[in-house]
Design goal:
It contains three helices and 32 strands. By secondary structure, it is mainly β. It starts with 15 loop residues before the first strand and ends with a strand.
């Protein structure tokens, strides 16, 4: 069926397991990508921090483990997600020391340029019960550090309890427990919010990274939020904060956010919020909330700011509670093509990192191919490590689009459905079937209305497909597992009418 599904121009772990990106930062002349890692098996285990660096976002150098779970306070779950920040020329990591019912924040620092890290002897330095009775001790994690006006801030995911008459319902005593499958897996909806509270984001501040005070919770009942957002029976994991074109942006990955129409179709989601953060109260006034990626495999997005001012985002290109075919090869876990972010007309825009352009080779140009009730090979266009830029005139067709990773046996289809008024990513015939807890694991729908033309920028990498729609207004990401030797054709089709492939430019990506 296959050879290897290792990708050529995406970061993928060499062996073992990898999930959330952590500590994304430009430091000492390179972009750093730390990540959640279990080096000994291709499944989740007690968490370490792996470490990649890159100078071009395409080639990734693996460095020694940054963090290993060797301390008593890291037992069972390990060194979980966090972030990085530079202070006095040194690189600091803040991470969650996680146990099943107790999560605390710790610090490690590097004095050798960001390769080896030493944990602070005062760890853990932040615990929920020291900060505020609002914060549940069992769910207080993923600290994101940033500096504003000389003050350090921490944004973290947490369950926040209601305070009534100056008191909260006490949590049960923390008890020892055996190994768990993952702090992000399992049925988190059976946790009683009357005791532990609902998912929220919390803001803390410090003058030195070591002594922290509580500012407040970000999310509250406001018109822009439906009840599902501020009554989330899960955690807003892996938060991030940055400013783009004068607009404040928050990223987060809420667990078990209910599906709303064609939004948030995955078991766990990735969303962004645009608005205004009050640094005195912690409240975030939301102007707009949207889904970061409308595909199958996208979680825990994190950003870094480059010296040229660009904000680059990267995410885990997988999803919890699904099968991982690469485990048979001894590894599991890949990351998205890094994306340049902007805010335009009140929406988050994502474009592929510009560095990819220098690796384009063997350009093939196709123009004005008409198709009526048929499916045709696009002449001279094939491959599975390629970029395809296409413009499709939907014409009178009821359905039309492109089939990639295609053969007579398998195909991955990106198509417009006029009846649904949606762009659809269909991997039902892609190859190895992905199983999971999601209600539907083989199709994703993106509402786009009734456009005359659809613009696509598609990146194929062995078993990965990322589709940038309409100049980056939307993105759909998914892993597929075709036959590497035979599933390489690119086809254009139209059903119940005529459509025109007005432009198609194909490039081999030679990394």
């Amino acid at each position: 069926m296959k050879k290897s599904y290792r990708q050529f121009y995406h970061a993928n772990v060499l062996s073992g397991w990898a999930n959330d990106p952590n500590g994304t930062i430009f430091y000492n002349g390179k972009a750093h990508l730390f990540f959640q890692h279990y080096p000994y098996k291709s499944e989740w285990g007690i968490m370490h921090w792996g470490h990649f660096v890159t100078e071009d976002f395409i080639h990734w150098e693996s460095l020694p483990l940054a963090l290993e779970p060797l301390e008593d306070y890291e037992e069972i779950c390990g060194c979980c997600s966090g972030s990085a920040i530079e202070k006095d020329g040194k690189l600091f990591l803040m991470y969650t020391a996680a146990q099943p019912e107790l999560q605390r924040q710790c610090i490690a620092v590097s004095t050798d340029g960001g390769v080896h890290f030493e944990k602070d002897p005062g760890n853990p330095i932040v615990t929920a019960d020291q900060i505020s009775p609002e914060i549940a001790m069992r769910d207080f994690r993923d600290p994101r550090l940033f500096l504003k006006d000389g003050v350090y801030y921490m944004l973290a995911g947490a369950r926040v309890k209601d305070i009534k008459d100056g008191k909260t319902v006490p949590e049960p005593p923390v008890k020892s427990a055996g190994p768990v499958s993952s702090p992000s897996l399992g049925d988190v909806t059976n946790i009683d919010p009357n005791i532990y509270g609902y998912g929220n984001l919390v803001l803390l501040k410090s003058n030195d990274l070591y002594h922290w005070s509580y500012v407040g919770k970000l999310l509250y009942n406001q018109e822009e939020f439906s009840e599902e957002f501020y009554h989330l029976n899960g955690v807003y994991e892996c938060p991030d904060y940055f400013v783009l074109n004068g607009t404040e942006v928050i990223l987060s990955s809420p667990q078990n956010l209910p599906q709303m129409g064609n939004l948030y179709q995955n078991l766990h989601s990735g969303l962004y919020m645009l608005g205004k953060l009050n640094f005195e109260t912690g409240r975030f006034q939301v102007d707009y909330i949207g889904e970061v990626d409308s595909g199958f495999d996208f979680y825990a997005a994190q950003s870094l700011r480059m010296p040229d001012g660009r904000v680059i985002m990267i995410a885990w290109k997988e999803m919890w509670d699904r099968s991982f075919p690469t485990r048979e090869e001894g590894w599991a876990g890949t990351y998205t093509l890094p994306r340049e972010l902007n805010v335009e007309n009140g929406r988050l825009i994502q474009r592929p990192v510009r560095e990819i352009e220098q690796f384009r080779k063997n350009h093939v140009s196709v123009r004005n191919v008409s198709c009526t009730n048929d499916c045709i090979n696009v002449e001279g266009v094939s491959g599975n490590v390629i970029e395809i830029k296409a413009v499709i005139d939907t014409g009178s067709a009821e359905k039309c689009g492109l089939k990639v990773f295609s053969s007579d046996k398998h195909e991955t289809v990106i198509y417009y459905d006029r009846k649904e008024k949606a762009l659809i990513f269909d991997r039902s015939r892609s190859g190895i079937t992905i199983e999971g807890k999601d209600t539907v694991t083989q199709k994703r729908y993106l509402d786009i209305g009734e456009p005359e033309k659809i613009t696509l920028d598609m990146f194929l990498d062995v078993c990965s497909l990322e589709v940038f729609v309409d100049g980056g207004k939307h993105v759909m990401t998914g892993n597929v597992y075709p036959d590497i030797d035979t599933d390489t054709e690119v086809r254009f089709f139209a059903e119940n009418g005529t459509a025109v492939l007005t432009e198609l430019d194909k490039y081999d990506i030679c990394a």
